[in-house]
Design goal:
The protein is mostly helical. It folds into two domains: 215 residues, no CATH class; 243 residues, no CATH class. Helix content is 76%, strand content 0%. It has 22 helices and no strands. α5 packs antiparallel against α6 and α15 packs parallel to α18. It is globular and about 80 Å long.
């Protein structure tokens, strides 16, 4: 590719971007330009701030402080880079290579142009000038050996961008299938949420271990003497484990190199820069080979070869919805089976449920690690009830818009010659396995962690059933009255009116207030035990069973009027859930 071809391609891409902005409206185009210029201004200000911080604040800083500062900067950069990666997964390349195959242009040149264009992200614009400015500031502050920080920082950034581009290319090949595309986006988002919570969990585990570690008078005296001596030291000491980790993890080579340069040794920074450029080169080479194989059809041929293998026919098993349950007609069971399979095929639904469950485990684990030793036996049933409430707070977003995920499939429900109350019952049954499964797992974990009695665990099971019936009734009503279209592949709702948004907000507040009913059984158990009429656990079990039976009766009585309401509003719901917003 010569300079004229490159200039033409870049001009064409710029024109396409400008046309996209103009189609979105003049106001949105002006607003986008303002945001872009603000981003570049913040990046320039960060570079200037880095120069000032390196010259005046960190010029005489000890080596350990230098390591900590660079670790924080790199961690923030990686965090924002991962957020940008999740957003970029749903976008196409800057230059579509498939449309350039008929032109006399090298694939390698287009690949390099796309790779360079991938650097125009918010994380690069905001953090790279600040890091380079900090390197320059350290040099101006008198530490001339910090000149080796320039190749080290650029090498680590190159390593991150190269392997990220390789990951994007591999995922792009997987996301040719639209259903797989949604699954990949949901999986990457879930993995990011999980990884972002791991440091918090490990930190709480370490603090809990330190808090429960036995302390002898001799060790306390020694620790006090160490604290007194550490106040007189100029250089904070780091543990050998921290130093070893910084030598082995490539992302931490920047901090390790800065610490070594502050201590007078340049070899760790030089070797780190060489290693980062080498690892980045391998990632870029791997990305190019993946892209080349994708456009040559090698990935497709491998899949077709794998499909030729004869799969073993497994014996058919009867699922949960293929069985006959007492009190539930076959029409409702069949609809529940269809709705359950539809939910399990939607990656956004699986991501929402899994994220809710993981967040519950993280938050519950932190609370139990901090407060389990000081919590009285009479208050432990409230923890189990709170865990059940937390589950339904996360699932309510799905159960309060049951028809929004059907989209075009709602037309088949309108034409279906089935009583509408069985449609609502089938919708509720579709959520039953996932909700009850998560609830029983949480109750078992709370029972093992808090050592609550089996009677209290059984009471929590009745509360789980009562909560499911309550949320099902409210979900049926709100799904009929306040439906909204959901963007495929996400839980983001499309544009709704101000009235609908206000009513949705008010219904959410009423829902949280309604869940407070679940705390009546453990509260009554505590009150009755204080009076002396009955122990807390049996009273909690009795009131929980009564509450579950009452909600079961109300649910049965609500199916007929809500089914009639659904039949009257079918056309309005169809218009809402099937509309496409550009």
């Amino acid at each position: 590719m010569d300079w004229g071809q490159l200039r033409t391609i870049v001009w064409l891409r710029g024109r396409l971007i400008r046309n996209q902005w103009s189609r979105s409206g003049s106001f949105n185009a002006v607003l986008t330009m303002i945001v872009v210029w603000i981003g570049f201004a913040v990046g320039a200000a960060g570079g200037l701030g880095g120069v000032l911080a390196g010259t005046f604040a960190l010029a005489k800083a000890p080596a350990a402080v230098m390591l900590l500062v660079w670790d924080l900067i790199v961690a923030a950069f990686l965090f924002f880079w991962m957020i940008g990666l999740i957003n970029e997964l749903q976008r196409s390349e800057t230059i579509d290579i498939g449309r350039m195959m008929h032109l006399p242009v090298s694939l390698k040149d287009i690949f390099l142009v796309n790779y360079l264009a991938s650097h125009l992200t918010a994380s690069i614009v905001l953090f790279l000038p600040a890091m380079l400015g900090l390197c320059l500031g350290l040099i101006l502050g008198g530490r001339w050996s910090m000149v080796w920080m320039f190749p080290l920082v650029l090498g680590v950034v190159f390593m991150v961008t190269a392997w990220t581009y390789c990951l994007r290319g591999w995922l792009a090949a997987l996301m040719v299938n639209k259903r797989r595309r949604r699954a990949v986006v949901a999986g990457v988002t879930f993995a990011f949420i999980l990884l972002s919570q791991l440091p918090n969990l490990f930190g709480n585990l370490m603090r809990d271990r330190e808090r429960h570690r036995p302390r002898t008078p001799d060790s306390a005296v020694v620790e006090k003497l160490r604290a007194d001596h550490s106040a007189d030291r100029d250089k904070p000491r780091l543990s050998p484990t921290v130093l070893t980790v910084h030598k082995c993890v490539p992302f931490l080579w920047v901090g390790n190199g800065a610490m070594s340069l502050a201590g007078g040794s340049a070899w760790p920074a030089v070797l780190g820069a060489a290693g980062a450029f080498g690892i980045g080169g391998l990632g870029l080479r791997r990305a190019y080979r993946t892209t080349l194989g994708f456009y040559r059809g090698q990935a497709t041929s491998r899949k077709s070869a794998q499909k030729r293998k004869v799969a073993k026919v497994a014996p058919a098993r009867r699922g949960l919805f293929e069985r006959s349950l007492p009190g539930i007609p076959d029409e409702a069971m069949a609809l529940g089976s269809v709705f359950f399979r539809s939910l399990m095929r939607a990656p956004e639904v699986k991501m929402a449920m899994a994220t809710n469950f993981i967040m519950l485990l993280f938050l519950g684990g932190m609370i139990l690690l901090r407060r389990s030793s000081t919590l009285g036996d009479q208050f432990k049933p409230f923890i189990a009830t709170s865990a059940i409430v937390f589950i339904f707070l996360g699932v309510s977003q799905l159960m309060f818009n049951q028809f929004g995920f059907d989209r075009g499939g709602f037309r088949q429900l309108v034409l279906l010659p089935v009583q509408r109350k069985w449609v609502l019952l089938g919708k509720n049954l579709a959520f039953l396995p996932a909700v009850l499964g998560m609830g029983l797992i949480v109750i078992a974990l709370v029972t093992l962690a808090l050592h609550i009695t089996p009677i209290a665990s059984l009471a929590a099971g009745f509360q789980l059933v009562a909560a499911f019936l309550l949320v099902s009734m409210m979900g049926n009503l709100l799904s009929v009255l306040l439906p909204h279209h959901v963007v495929p592949g996400s839980l983001k709702r499309t544009k709704t009116s101000a009235t609908t948004s206000l009513l949705t907000f008010v219904s959410g507040l009423l829902f949280m207030a309604a869940l407070g009913v679940l705390f009546i059984p453990p509260g009554m158990g505590l009150l009755i035990s204080r009076v002396g009429w009955l122990p807390a656990a049996p009273a909690n079990l009795l009131f929980s069973a009564v509450l579950a039976g009452l909600f079961g009766l109300l649910y049965k009585l609500s199916l007929v009027p809500l089914g009639e309401l659904l039949q009257r509003r079918e056309r309005q719901i169809l218009e809402v859930v099937t509309k496409e917003v550009e």
